[in-house]
Amino acid sequence: MINVIKGMPDILPDEMPAWHFVEATARRIFYLYGFSEIRPPMLERTELFSRGMGVDTDVVEKQMYTFVDKSGTSLTLRPEATASVLRAVIENRLLNMDPIQKLYTMGPMFRYERPQKGRYREFHQINVERLGEEDYTCDAETLAMASELASSFGLEGVRMEVNSLGCDECRGKYKDALRAFLKKKKDMLCKDCVRRMDSNPMRVLDCKVPSCREAVMDAPLIEEFLCDGCRAHYEGLLRTLDLMHVSYEKNPGLVRGLDYYTRTTFEITASGLGSQNAVAGGGRYDRLVSQLGGPCSPGIGFAFGMERVIMLLGEMEHAEKGLFFVVPGGDPAREQALKLMLQLRSDGFRVDACLEKSFRAQMKRAGKSGCPLCIILGEDEMDNSMLTIKDMVTSLQVQVSMARAASEIRTMLGQEERV
After folding, report:
1. Phi and psi (nearest 5°) for 145?
2. What angle do CA 385, 386, 388 make, to 5 degrees?
3. Residue 319 burial by CB count (10 A; 0-12/13-18/19+): exposed, middle or buried?
4. Which of 132, 209, 262, 333 lies at a CB distance of 3.0 to 4.6 Å from 100, suitable for a disulfide?
5. Residue 316's CB: how many other CB atoms inside 10 A?
């Protein structure tokens, strides 16, 4: 037997209702906020991610699935969606058509890391990218949408933490101060952080090694180094979140793990996942579009980890299991059943059957199917052009004419009549 690749689990049929719920909920919220879907490919040129995410990030250094194809081109399975979406925007000149782009995408990402609860080597994200606006009200609305999405999923213990990473000017001063602080803590840092201390000291703040986390507990905070413009942007964001009644907490130590973030950054956590409790995160990236070869266009975005959200939802029932046809026997009844099943499907009903089995076996399968209604078509029904509809929960049975079957089924399922 050939087994599944480690860290890339199958998603089985009984798990799919939760996935459908998450996807449908996200699409509904994004529609209300005026976002459109885009679907970039899963495979991109490696330089797209190394240029966009930063060579000093853990993702680029250790976690990318990269290979050289037959033409000698280095390709990578996408480890995140932002760079891919922006590449598609630039290549297809979407900003020329409209300088403001509000886009979302859903799909698999790939990172080579140790599989653990809620984190796999193939994982799925819901990503949002909003381009062409740099005012803090844009940030506030984007954070409000992320908060509303988390609430719509029905997650418990939801908290949103917000910080500002400043711009190049104030972040440069902060890096100098942080670098000086870290040199005093060098003996507590892991090998990677000792190296990053000079090249990109803010990466040390994002390290998960316990000794590194302890070393930076009393590190200087970037909020103390914000320039006037970044401070005004941050204060405006918080003021607008208050105006919109969006719950948040300031976290001056919050640093996202990718190099392209500027100014606003945020993270959403939920209870039930232990210490690795983040379900979403994102921030502003005003330089990234131009870094990838596009025009100067500010942007902000976020991503939800779908596996983590679905873990918190638990098992979900199917919203509608449809109908199960049962035919006691005989070719004429089976042929009539097939015709009726085609008609009911064209009327929008999900219909299942197992017509070659015995009547008893069919009824047993109907009971296990989860279908709320069972349609019985026997000789008596055939003779009188009738159907017997059985409610599988209450065991109530009613006979209706074949012509009125669709209308009666809708009534029993609590559906409105189709126009």
Report:
1. -65, -40
2. 155
3. exposed
4. 132
5. 16
CA–CA dist 336, 341 (Å, integer): 9
274, two tokens: 């232990």
CA angle, 109 then 319 then 124, to 5°: 5
Task: Give the integer Cα–Cα distance in Å for 292 and 270.
Answer: 33
Helical packing angle, 306-313 and 16-32, nearest 10°: 120
Q: What is the pLDDT along the chain (419 residues), one digit of tens a residue?
A: 999 999 999 999 888 989 999 999 999 999 999 999 999 999 999 999 887 665 555 566 668 889 999 999 999 999 999 999 999 999 999 999 999 999 999 999 999 888 777 678 999 999 999 999 999 999 999 999 999 999 999 988 899 999 999 988 888 888 888 888 888 888 888 988 888 888 788 878 877 788 888 888 888 888 889 999 999 999 999 999 999 999 999 998 887 656 678 899 999 999 877 666 889 999 999 999 999 999 999 999 999 999 999 998 876 655 456 787 888 777 888 888 898 889 889 888 888 888 888 888 988 888 888 888 898 988 888 888 888 999 988 999 999 998 888 888 888 887 655 54
Write the DSSP symbol of residue 259: T
State the CB neighbour count (10 A cutoff) for residue 308.
Answer: 23
| Closest by Cα among 270, 168, 254 to 206 | 254
Query: Are the C-beta atoms of residues 264 and 300 closer than 8 Å to each other?
Result: yes
Q: What is the DSSP string of 271-316?
A: TTSTT--EEEEEEE-TTHHHHTTS----EEEEEEEHHHHHHHH---
- Cα of first residue to Cα of last residue in the chain, in angstroms, is 51
Tell me the one-letter amino acid at 75. Answer: L
Strand order in the sheet with 249-250: 36-37, 101-110, 122-131, 299-305, 278-284, 262-269, 159-164, 249-250
